Amino acid sequence: MHRRPWIIAAAALLVGTQAFADLKVGYVDLQRALAEVGEGQDAKRKLQTEVEKKKKEFEGEQAKLRDDKAVLDKQGAMMSEEVRNQKFTELQKRLFDLTQKAEKLQLELADSERKELKKIFEKMDPIIASIAQREGLTLVFEKTDSGLVYAPASLDLTNELVRTYNDKYPMKGAKAGGGEPKKN
Asked: What is the pTM of this model?
């Protein structure tokens, strides 16, 4: 039993039963393409640098809060109850603020990643369309999101997408990429 029989049914409806015999399909692995195009690798490096910077800042604030709590725990017995409660309340507020900051950072980083990837995917779309038109393909599926369970490697357009993308949008400066993409 096929996991996604609706794909074939939808394809048949799109092209009509007469043309179903002439149906030509292909697929691309957008996640692999993203990892192999120069701009994708550059975006990943930038995002990783940003994550590391924010993580380091956050961990510094977290360590300061832990240190201040340790001081309060150690010196709390020597303080009046009012001062101890005030310091404890301040620590709780800082902890709450730090938690809020962590959540905000996560959202900002996710938004930043989404924006970077969207720019790249928008550049990939016309390249995929061009390859599909040139090859006379009726449909091109995304390998992961389409539910594609099996397709022969001969239908994989990913290598051509990566080559064309890197030719059309070369990285300035140092050579981008980690070598040649795998050949079909």
From this structure: 0.68
